[in-house]
Amino acid sequence: NKGHYEHYMQKEIHEQPESLTTTMRGRLIRGGSSKSKSVLLGGLKDHLKTIRRSRRIVFIGCGTSYNAALAARPIFEELSGIPVTMEIASDLLDREGPIYREDTAVFVSQSGETADTLLALQYALENGALCVGVTNTASSAIARNTHCGVHINAGAEIGVASTKAYTSQIVVMAMLSLAIGGDTISTKARREAIIDGLYDLPNKVREVLELDQEMKDLANLLIAEQSLLVFGRGYNYATALEGALKVKEVALMHSEGILAGEMKHGPLALVDESLPIVVIATRDACFSKQQSVIQQLHARRGRLIVLCSEGDAASVCPGKSCRTIEVPQVEDCLQPVINVVPLQLLAYHLTVLRGFNVDQPRNLAKSVTTQ
Ligand code: M6R
């Protein structure tokens, strides 16, 4: 049921404040006798000790689910102190890459039925790794065949383009990193700030959804473009990949997410006065590096659209040369949840304006059950 929305993708983008609330319900603990803040993930509690002892955490997924894991990687490394590596499921299988008994392999999949991810799970089980599932479908093959897991509880997602599952996956993995990290004194303030940020996140997503009309206006400007680049780094490298995936998948426009640190190693050659480029430059430890990227793209007369923190619009663009999208600022590791929303809206409006099928993009299926 689409309610008053025209498309499922539109409905699913707009219901993210509610889906995120459901994802967190009953899992964040604030107050109580010890007055401390913590995370409770029922499906994992018997395995946390084993996960903490693992030599490596390997995230495995495809498409948007892979991107969600990539967005969570930095906070996982920070809070757990365990090396985290990333695997696209098909590539792990192609290489028969090493997976060990001492590894924890985390399988991220909205449907829980993706063939490549399921085969990678069988491979990891054969190699003796502890296998954790992060899925949106409790009865799915991945949920049933992993040793333990977390249900993301985002509600059914109908649009082929994954939107609300992406933000719920990031939130689940942020909670997972808090649960694995344990409660050491040195990380207490950081953990509590993240938990406070999680409580407030649905409200901040509600605020960023108000950009709907602004993103429709931007889509109108970009309607006839051949290509769109999206530059991100750090916590928002994944946002760049995910924003570009949405644009290519539904709006059928070539789009590429680029790690900004790689700019001078090739992509800079593409920049001229005609190619539109989104630069994600919200406030975090990488902000000054992104400012310098903006300067360099500007020097090559790039057509810039800068996604920045509220209040930064006037300062991020050299000589007011670019368009800006201001978003609310949240705890750095949660910022990808906010930053992806305008890009989801942009992809949605571009698709409608270009006259393509929003919920069933050509050649794609919701659940990819063949290799
Ligand atoms: O169900 P899964 O999360 O395992 O699906 C993985 C990808 O097929 C999926 O995320 C795909 O990339 C989406 N259509 C992107 O919007």
From TrEMBL:
Catalytic activity: D-fructose 6-phosphate + L-glutamine = D-glucosamine 6-phosphate + L-glutamate
Keyword Repeat: yes
Signal peptide: none
Keyword Repeat: yes
Keywords: Aminotransferase, Glutamine amidotransferase, Repeat, Transferase
EC number of the protein: 2.6.1.16
Protein name: glutamine--fructose-6-phosphate transaminase (isomerizing)
Species of provenance: Vicia faba (Broad bean)
Taxon lineage: Eukaryota, Viridiplantae, Streptophyta, Embryophyta, Tracheophyta
